[in-house]
Design a protein that fits this description.
One of its GO terms (cellular component) is cytosol. The protein is of the alpha/beta class. It is built from 18 helices and 27 strands. It has a 9-stranded mixed sheet with strand order 2-1-11-10-12-13-14-15-16, sandwiched between helices. It has a 5-stranded parallel sheet with strand order 4-3-5-6-7, with helices on both faces. Bound molecules: 5'-O-[(S)-ethoxy(hydroxy)phosphoryl]adenosine.
Length: 571
Amino acid sequence: MDMQPIPAREGKHNLKDYHNARKNFDWEQVKRKFSWYETGKVNAAYETIDRHAENPSKKNQVALSYSAPDREEELTFEQLKNQSNQFANVLKKHGIEKGDRVFLFMPRSPEFYASFFGVLKVGAIAGPLFEAFMEQAVRDRLQDSEATMLITTPDLLYRVPQEDLPDLKKIVLVGDKVEASERYIDYFAEMKQASEDFAIEWVDLEDGMILHYTSGSTGKPKGVYHVHNAMIQHYATGEWVLDLQENDIYWCTADPGWVTGTSYGIFAPWLHGVTNVIRGGRFTPESWYGTVDKYNVTVWYTAPTALRKLVSAGEDVANQFDMSSLRHLLSVGEPLNPEVITWGVKALDLRIHDTWWMTETGAMLICNYPTMDIRPGSMGKPIPGVEASIVDNEGNELPPYQMGNLAIKKGWPSMMRAIWKNPGKYDSYFVNGWYVSGDSAYKDEDGYFWFQGRLDDVINTSGERVGPFEVESKLIEHEAVAEAGVIGKPDPERGEIIKAFITLNEGYEATDELLEDIRVFVKTGLSAHAAPREIEIKDTIPKTRSGKIMRRLLKSWELGLPTGDTSTLEE
Ligand code: WTA
């Protein structure tokens, strides 16, 4: 694609200098900015919230600016500190200790954030779950993590299969009219009685902080385990890439059930002490533009799907709102179309900075920054302190323009430390000292990286990762379905949609009603974003002789491509 570069604009920092200084860069320089470098006492909740609450000139600043269709509320740093202290006291009273897994399953709300920091303050590990998860998705994650406590709302309780969760001892209910018992804790009643003083549990940088479940190409979702040390990179990228400044009003659209919603919806903005806009409810182009306009958002981190929707909503919608508060936008999760970047310059007079990273990597790695020229369609360059390359399957680096595995040299602070309860798995990501991402890309002669696609079967639909195995497993639970194979099918707006190929059990007829029933079965059993948009009935599903579904072959059929090597196909 031949597109003009979008020239750099000045941010707070001269990032070109950072970039030139990469060779001498050392993460120790960032660590020295934190007081724990001297004291040895660390807890990410303290650095993110309490530190600002203890600063007389910051404590009354709005930390959290919450709005949903039926509720608006602001919390200052001091209020957020006090409320999370209260919740930490509630947790302690009910026996939660360092290292315990406490899961949060509820819509975005001030209570979510107060609870989240309460969990960190007692030294427990937080497990945020996307509010749209249905029973199966909740079961898999709570079982695997052996969570002992869940914080949820009375409305969502029906999706928590308590009888299958022997480790789950207590459930905190955030809602009115909660009937408290041995098992159920009334959030508001207990908060009212809890002290606003709490002695934070100081932990080690390598102690557990958060578990994010994410999909791989095989098996159930895996628990990606992050430690307090990750905040070093959340802080650094907040400075260099988000380019956060003292008086910024920042908005990240991601839900905290996904990694973007914690690394960049919680840690990065609050480590920098900026006002963080949090929006509940459904999104429409009007409500997106309206949020920027109403709250005077200055830095906005969102996703290509959202931006594509803004583009297709047209200029008439854009012109109803004042976007002049914005300094720049950022994007993550799927390829950012070059057309969207040129639209940003034309329609909004703004640069959109693409960023590349993954749940496993914990924070941004390859990015566009304010003082760097954007090459539309490129993910940018590695941030200081990160070495990225394109390698072959043996971990040898490939020259410019050659496609291969997008890989990162071991050693950045926010890298996951383990896959929960699967010690062998972690090592399998590394080849010859490189973390192999599962994405394919190439780099040009100036070191810009260009995304090509995923090398495994993981589906990326509207920026959300879906594992085909999870969907297939749910499909075959339906009484009519014998076998299932699931792939991502390219889609202009969503990136990919989920397409399922199924065979039917004897006695079932392929009717539209049946297909709809199967779709709803996945939607209500697993989650809406994982439900196949297309279902096609086949006589057989191609499998290898060892019984693995050959999704690659299904995909080739779907796209009308050559089928490649089929020597392992069963008879
Ligand atoms: C994809 C989200 C193209 C990629 C933080 C990666 C991207 C997966 C980009 C991780 C980008 C992420 N351009 N593709 N800028 N950013 N991806 O774990 O395939 O939900 O491996 O993390 O999203 O998705 P995850």
